[in-house]
Amino acid sequence: LGRGLVVEPFLPTLLAGNILDEAHSELIENVIGGTSLLALAHGEPASRYTLSHVETTAEKSGDDWVLNGNKAVVMNGDSADHFVVSARTAGDKTDADGISLFLIPAGAITQRGYSTVDGYRAAEISLDNVTVGADALIGKQGDGLAAIERAHAVGTLAVCAEALGAIEVAIDATLDYLKTRTQFGVPIGKFQALQHRMADMMTEREQIRSAVINAAGHMESEDRDWYVSALKNLIGRSGRMIAEECIQMHGGIAMTWEYNVGHYAKRIIMIDHLFGDCDHHMEQIIKMGRAA
Predict the structure, then answer these.
(1) What are the angstrom distances between the C-alpha of 187 and each of 182, 191, 243, 246?
(2) In 10 A of CB 203, how many CB atoms?
(3) Predicted confidence (pLDDT) at residue 163 exceeds the cutoff of 60
(4) What is the pLDDT of residues 110-154, one digit of tens each?
(5) What per-residue confidence (pLDDT) applies to 289?
(6) What tens digit of pLDDT does each residue of 75-95 get?
(7) Are 250 and 177 within 8 A, CB to CB?
(8) Helices 25-33 and 10-17 meet at what angle, rounded to 10?
């Protein structure tokens, strides 16, 4: 997906589908069959990267639930036909406990869709006295944060793997350019300064590849969050460096719409801001008491 810059709703489907349980097996079958699209509506205008920050509320009304609140930058939010929505059924807006998850059809909520800077689609979601039945509750009431954290860990691993694919293409394109672009009668790839920069990029790429494999192998371990944060921090730092180096070594041509390197660089840099940027994940590593 990263190598092809594939603009498909893979990531939002992965996030929301990871939360659904056996009670929604029919919907999962439809998603696998391609007849239904899912989206996870969790992030809010004031939540930034804090997964426990939920101000959207869900209150009991007889056997039903009534939801009110707003969700921000919901990936694929203007195309999904079902949403997994987080809402607070107890506690303060930043409490870990009291977050519940609900499956809501798209027709019940208000959406405002738009394009993101890297060519994907997202939406602002508004829930204004949205009423759903008791069967809309996913899992146990007030116990949804663990499922959200797991979905975000899986999503973070997915975008980091996507970034690796995009990085590989950007580096390969830059290497080809260094071999063909000439200056002073020789290919610029013969200049030692550019060779050193290319070697640094390739070293970082191999570190990223190892970190992706390492995190994938720890998704079921107690240390999952540490490995995910270490990977995401590396992607943010090294991915930006590689993207910028690829553009600089190409010169002005890399910034044209017709050339692919600029598009890959844009996606690599935007991935840093999905599920927490490099600074956020360094803070998480420090809180967990381990050095990256």
Answers:
(1) 4, 8, 22, 16
(2) 11
(3) yes
(4) 999 999 988 889 999 999 999 999 999 999 999 999 999 999 999
(5) 81
(6) 999 999 999 999 999 999 999
(7) yes
(8) 160
Task: Report the C-alpha gap between 147 and 139 in whole angstroms.
Answer: 9
* Token couple for 71: 């969700």
Mean pLDDT score across all residues of the chain: 95
